[in-house]
Every structure is written in C-alpha cells, then in structure tokens.
Amino acid sequence: MTAYAEGDAEAFDMLYDRHKGALYRYFTRQLTQSEAHDCFQTLWLKIIDNRSRYQPSAPFSHFLFSLAHNVLMDHHRKAMRRRVDDTTDPIDLSDDTPDPAAAVEREQIRARLHQQISDLPTHQREVWLLRQETALSTAEIAHVTGTSEEGVKSRLRYARDKLKSGMARYAERN
Fold this sequence. Notes:
Helix 3 crosses helix 4, helix 4 crosses helix 7 and helix 7 (138-145) packs across helix 8. By secondary structure, this protein is an all-alpha fold. The chain contains 9 helices and no strands. It has one domain (2-173). The chain is 72% helix and 0% strand.
C-alpha cells in the first residue's frame, strides 16, 4: 500500500489480486449479490481515494477491513435492512462421487448453512465471517468493528453455537 500511495500502479494490482477474494466474500455473505458488488466497488474506490492517508503503523488488513466495515455499515444505514441472498459459494462440500442423490444432499446442506449464516444477527455474522474469511485475530477484528475483544469473542461464541445448533441434524446423519 505504501508503494501504491507513492504512485506505483502495479502495487495496486498486487493489492487487488491478493485481497479481492476475501473482500468480495465478506460482502456477498452479508448482502444480496448486487449490493455486495456495489459495496465491493465502493470499497476499492475508497482505497484509491484514501491511499495518501494510509499509515503503515498497523497491518494493511486492519486498514482494509476497517474500510470494508465502514462501507458495510454505511450500506446498512442507507438500506435499513438485513437481507442476505448469496449465490457465490466458496465452501466446497463436493467429493468425487458422481451420485446425484449425494449432490442434492450437498446442495441442501450448503443452502441450509447459507441460511443459517444469513439468519445470524448482523454483528455476529460480521465477526464470524471476518474470522472465517481472513487471518485477523480477535483483537484485530475488535479494531475493525470498533468493539472490544471480549465483545468479539462473545459474538463468535453465540454465532458458533447458533450455527452448530442449526446444522445439528446434518451432523447427526454423517
């Protein structure tokens, strides 16, 4: 980011390539596909606009996910809704068996998991996704979301318990 802030356009390409997947999933797990796309684009415009303000006093991921969190919160404030409609699925529940029944069951499990994630309260869903999609520690997630580390741990525990409970019937079958 420092190189990009100093005018190195290739450095931006490297940043984009390195972080686009996790950032896009961060938004698609919490918004409709079109809303996620809009927020993703807005985030990269903010990165471009704020490049001169970047201070390398903390890891770049703090800066990046703080901006992503702010974009998401701005979106929620404007939209005033908490709806998730995710068709992007980086979760790989596939195996090598060509069994159509198994494929249908995997799709049902995937759909159930996505529904469980979307049903989490916004703050729980956000910290859970940040933990799953990034290498951020609980302290770093607390910094990104503007809450305490204990608050993050609590939200993670509640989210994990809700997801575990919601997926229990699938775990019992396997």
